Amino acid sequence: MAKEHLLKKGDIFLLEEGHSFYIENFPQAFLYDNGDFNFELTSGEIHIRGIRRGLDTSIFCGRYVVTDIQMTGGSHGRDDYPDGHQVSARKIIKGLDGKKTTSHMEIRFYQTGVFTCKNTRVHVVGRAKLKTEITF
Fold it and tell me: What is the 3-state secondary structure (H, E, C) of 61-72?
């Protein structure tokens, strides 16, 4: 993948069927096939591929905005592998007032490197602008 195709902070992209990502604070019952329906919150991977343990993974499809980019995740030592281009993003949703906002749930995935949640074909559909308001 050429460097110019890597996502940047503020890019709006589509997360689609076949993509995967890391998630935190998500019910364990939907992440692991250990036969236990434990609903404690934990971290794990989600692969968007139909229904998994009662969860329709297509609910994660949609438009996301990139909130952070890092070169991270590599390892040095016996099993040496380089850092990857890690993307953090939030899903764009409609708020109660009908205006677009972002969900509180953050996802992460890589675009380069040797990682299980790696999405190299991501379609950019727009660009977000940061808006800051100060009220008294």
Answer: CEEEEEEEEEEE
Q: How many domains does the chain have?
A: 1
- Is there a domain that residue 46 lies in? yes
The residue range of the domain holding 27 is 3-127
Rounded alpha-carbon distances, angstroms, from residue 62 to 70, 75, 77, 100, 124: 22, 32, 38, 13, 12
Q: In DSSP terms, which residues pair with 51 in a beta bridge?
A: 56
**Predicted structure pTM score:** 0.84
φ, ψ (nearest 5 deg) of residue 81: -150, 150
In a domain, 101, yes or no: yes
- Note down pLDDT in tens along the chain; length 136 residues: 444 489 999 999 999 999 999 999 998 888 887 767 788 898 999 999 998 888 899 999 999 999 999 998 877 777 777 889 999 999 998 877 888 888 888 999 999 998 999 999 999 999 988 777 777 7
Is residue 82 included in any domain, yes or no? yes
Look at residue 16 and tell me if it is in a domain.
yes
Three-class secondary structure of residue 58 per DSSP? helix
